[in-house]
Amino acid sequence: MSVSIKSEREIGLMREAGRLLAHVHEELGKAIRPGMSTWEVDALGEKLIRDLGCVPNFLHYNGYPASICVSVNEEVVHGIPKKNRILKEGDIVSLDAGLIYKGYHSDAARTHAVGKISPEAQKLIDVTRQSFFEGIKMAREGMHLYDISAAIDSYVSGFGYGIVRDLVGHGIGTSLHEDPQIPNFRQRKKGVRLQAGMTLAVEPMINAGGWEVEFLADGWTTVSRDRSLSAHYENTILVTDGEPEILTLI
Ligand code: MF3
Ligand code: CO
């Protein structure tokens, strides 16, 4: 395993890839409303990415058929957009998106409320988002990779939620998925020593019930095995010798 350290030039390109993706997520978030199909969400996302002069990195990745992963309620990740899957009031929807700018990848996910949602669903969204921020407090030069994992785990476990184990975060740069893998749960080892210039996609996926997931017959859609609600929050970050820089937030 080797974790790439980006040069100043590469960091500049990663920053721009991240900034553009943050804009895409802002626009997608504003567009979400009851009555919209998951296919329309994907079409809008792909247009936003292409209008910025970028390429959607998920499209055709290992055969994935769309640009945006749109995962509703008990769907954890990799939901395939469909014309007949209509968002309705009270749903939660996780949007995972990524793009390539001048050869450099960004990757980020948000879970949104569709109209008015239950307090329980809102809490799951909020805890999932906060777990990312708890995790990245550890993402600085001199700390170790699994300090991030442990910080996410201890925060989320306090709420009794299930942390998805079958899918993890990852390094990112000239490829969507680079070393290292970044679990969202505590590890026995310390993991690699973090260094300034590493770019990482940290992405807790949290179920309101148990941590177990199943993969549906479409080969992609991942659901919580107990069909409890699931939320996802992800940003591409840059490790520095101080606070991490979050590249995919405006
Ligand atoms: N954000 C996802 C990840 O981090 C990527 C989606 S996989 C794809 O791995 F196939 F849909 F592209
Ligand atoms: Co990712």
Question: What do these coordinates show?
Answer:
The chain is of the alpha+beta class and 250 residues long. The protein has a single domain, classed as Creatine Amidinohydrolase. Helices cover 28% and strands 25% of the residues. The chain contains 4 helices and 15 strands. A 5-stranded antiparallel sheet has the order 8-7-9-14-15, sandwiched between helices. Helix 1 packs antiparallel against helix 2 and helix 3 packs antiparallel against helix 4. The two termini are 32 Å apart. The structure holds 2-amino-4-trifluoromethylsulfanyl-butyric acid and cobalt (II) ion (CO). 2-amino-4-trifluoromethylsulfanyl-butyric acid (MF3) binds next to strand 4.
Spatial gap, N to C terminus: 32 Å
Structural class: alpha+beta
- CATH topology, by name, is Creatine Amidinohydrolase
Tell me the helix content.
Answer: 25-40%
Main sheet: strands, sense, barrel? 5 strands, antiparallel
Low-confidence stretches: none
Number of helices: 4
The total tally of domains equals: 1
The second-level CATH architecture is Alpha-Beta Complex
CATH top level?
Alpha Beta
> Mean pLDDT score, rounded?
98
Q: How many β strands by DSSP?
A: 15
State Rg.
Answer: 17 Å
Small molecules bound in the structure, each named once: 2-amino-4-trifluoromethylsulfanyl-butyric acid, cobalt (II) ion
Brief write-up:
With 250 residues, this protein is α+β, with helices and mostly antiparallel strands. It has one domain (8-242): Creatine Amidinohydrolase, CATH 3.90.230.
Compile the SSE list and pairings:
Blueprint: H1 8-31, H2 38-51, E1 55-56, E2 68-72, E3 75-77, E4 92-101, E5 104-113, H3 119-136, H4 145-157, E6 162-163, E7 169-171, E8 178-182, E9 199-202, E10 205-207, E11 213-215, E12 222-224, E13 230-232, E14 235-238, E15 245-246
Antiparallel strand pairs: 1-4, 2-4, 3-12, 4-5, 6-10, 7-8, 7-9, 9-14, 10-13, 11-12, 14-15
Helix pairs in contact: 1-2, 3-4
The structure holds 2-amino-4-trifluoromethylsulfanyl-butyric acid (MF3) and cobalt (II) ion (CO).
2-amino-4-trifluoromethylsulfanyl-butyric acid (MF3) binds at residues 58, 61-62, 64, 69, 78, 96, 98, 107, 201, 203.
